[in-house]
Write a structure and sequence with these properties.
2 copies of one chain form a homodimer. By secondary structure, chain A is an alpha/beta fold. Helices cover 46% and strands 20% of the residues of chain A. In chain A, α3 runs antiparallel to α4 and α3 crosses α7.
Chain lengths: 196, 196
Amino acid sequence: MRLGLLYSGGKDSTLAALLLSEFYDVTLQTAHFGITDDWKHARSTAEATGFDFERLELDPDVAHEAVDRIREDGFPRNGIQLVHQHALETAAEREFDAVADGTRRDDRVPTVSRAQAQSLEDRHGVDYIAPLSGFGRTAVDRLVEETLDVTVGPSGQITRADYEAELRAIIAEEDGIDAIGEYFPDHEQTHVTDVR
Amino acid sequence: MRLGLLYSGGKDSTLAALLLSEFYDVTLQTAHFGITDDWKHARSTAEATGFDFERLELDPDVAHEAVDRIREDGFPRNGIQLVHQHALETAAEREFDAVADGTRRDDRVPTVSRAQAQSLEDRHGVDYIAPLSGFGRTAVDRLVEETLDVTVGPSGQITRADYEAELRAIIAEEDGIDAIGEYFPDHEQTHVTDVR
């Protein structure tokens, strides 16, 4: 069975790929709006880990809608959620039997409720799978420790391909570089460099 | 890392074992109250699938508490939930780094909320993992189809080792065999016979 996994090059989505590869032919899907080249970081990690890789082109209008939402809210959560749902819908339209993401039990964003999962499945005739949603933070950290080589750092400096990078780029261009700090609190991000 | 998985010999817990075995040393834990020998069905499946197997002895008082609850409610859900929580607590007291079960996204019973999971983890210093909680019914069915040899039949006739068998036995002894039908609606159960 062919499965498309939303992939950032971070530890969660890499671990999800390893878990799913037992049962599915996994193709990593790195979503991007064509704004920056950050998707190439995910491609590097994909090459290191040996998984098939594809770009998942998203609608740039959704990026601007997400940025509007982030400005309005003053924080990124709902904007990022919007992009994630759009990415799942886009992946579900491709020729996969199942689509998946790396959301964990303790994640606050993005999240996919049971009703949203069922709706995605019914409308597109695919399975939606969140293989890490039954794993807490500590369990994920322990598995990562055993399985992956990881670089950790502040979210602005780590070279990975999550949605934030391109949304930050839009805000920097339209509102100036200082506006980023207003909307995106600093937090640790990870970039996987290899599988052990 | 050593992981104890609550195990009935059914398709969900067998699939959970296969998923987790990529990352953990899995020992199947079949909970029982010492009332019937149904745990032996799970041992047969464990032997067929090649996983380590242990009995998990539960407190018979909890079985009677569960039966009282089922009589009071007129349906088994809350009684079974009670037994499942007791089984998780008992497994968490053993020498495992993690405990797990085969609950799926669409299951209504047993369920383990995020708060219950966190509480179990904090009190016992273990990880709690529900590897199938990010998989819907269709996804599980497709994986089972590809991976396992399964026998399906009405819940009273299938030889597996879920909590129901012993609770039914108590009710049959105390209230007569006809009382079982009052509390336990007929539903399909599965028993795994082999891994493909």
